[in-house]
């Protein structure tokens, strides 16, 4: 089979398009023939060594959409030919992948396959953030950082469906504002002094919920526009630096900070994902729920794909057709 393999950390040139043996499954696993995989910012961090441990040769990628090729034994919940999305065991940039059955989800026939293929990671993540980690109510003003990216575009739509009173998105430049507004944001800001603008838009009160995947200075400034009793949800550090938070900024204002990792949840609480899968499929079959796709590439173009993602010029998801 063809796969993208890396043998060292580094720039996009460490990604090699080569022939590999087709993997073999064990009990509780399925073999999937990949149709699509998506690219997530975690792939960049893993490639550069900022997140992954050195375990070479390595195949990157968090999620796939494809067709069941083989099951183990007679008691599998799946059968050959089932269309599924999955979080693979050892990377997704390959024509065939292995996944544990707990992390495989059968796609209903009335859900557009390419639509769901673009968003396994970001849809599960966004749903859990908005429904379980920091449930959004009709009284909430919400701030969503990186609003034009894969997770951001999902968060905006989920916040709108849940009836958020006010939705504010931040982007790196206002060329990205159109897609954020089209998906349901009331206001779009750039990062420069965003807390001042947020406070003006909320009549000095601040927002009730902040969804932050950037960390660093963005997390620190977010506290300047978080309302009393508000919640800041920290679920990534694409900015590459941890934010410094004073405990005195929390207890006296009754505000709180929550953290969430989909990777940790896949490893230690996969049952959480099974619980929300059907709700996600219900959302995705609605024509009004959009999955913006920035661009579709082939597997052999993966170096170009990583360069494109690192340029931060894309809006929506980057999809790989295999």
UniProtKB/TrEMBL annotation:
Tell me the InterPro entries matching this sequence.
ADH-like_C, ADH-like_N, ER, GroES-like_sf, NAD(P)-bd_dom_sf
Q: Which Gene3D superfamilies match?
A: Medium-chain alcohol dehydrogenases, catalytic domain, NAD(P)-binding Rossmann-like Domain
Q: Which UniProt keywords apply?
A: NADP, Oxidoreductase
Domain (Enoyl reductase (ER)) ranges: 10-320
**One Pfam family for this entry, by name?**
ADH_zinc_N
Superkingdom of origin organism: Bacteria
In terms of SMART domains, this protein maps to:
PKS_ER (SM00829)
Q: What is this protein called?
A: Zinc-binding dehydrogenase
